[in-house]
Amino acid sequence: MKKITKLVLALSLVFAVSCKDDTKNSDTKKETTESVAKTEKFVVKPEGTTVKWTAYKTTEKVPVGGQFVTLNFDEKAGDSPQEALNNLNFSIPISGLFTDNDARDLKLKTSFFGEMLNPEFIKGTIKHIDNKYIASITMNGVTNDLPLEVKITDERRVAMSATMQLKDWDALGALSILNKVCFDLHKGADGVSKTWEDVSIEINTFLRKN
User: In the chain, what's the furthest Cα-to-Cα distance?
Assistant: First the structure.
């Protein structure tokens, strides 16, 4: 009887220790998983970001598309896509303007941006405030806020769009000079030459996780 009692006690002790170790291992695994989740960051990278724009000509509002092939900013990281994008400072060299038409590129660089103050760069900061996005943009010596429509899919792909009104950056004078240079090219079927004041902007980026 004593042997049986001792055997039961020994088995109970082994079982208790085993359960304690399993609990400890489970807690350790949980802590490791939580630690990985907490340290994982969303990163915005310049090489994964594109900036495209669409301007318009003629009274029929014919679109003319282009892009800026260079976008400068430091890699920005955050615990969420919103945090990664918030307070992202950027600069866009005008020299990187590209429309697949050399003559048009030259006119835009010299007769539009070249007529502005500080014509080398467009600078700005993306901000996420009250669940809304804006881009605070400095162009032609003027800083103004541009509301952004933002779509984030799979927490990785980000598409931003906006419509810039050039008058908000005192750029109608430069636009008038561009229209004179492109007077005949901006005529429609009605014979009226027109260059529109609004420009559509589209920004796409891919958030890397690390």
Answer: 114
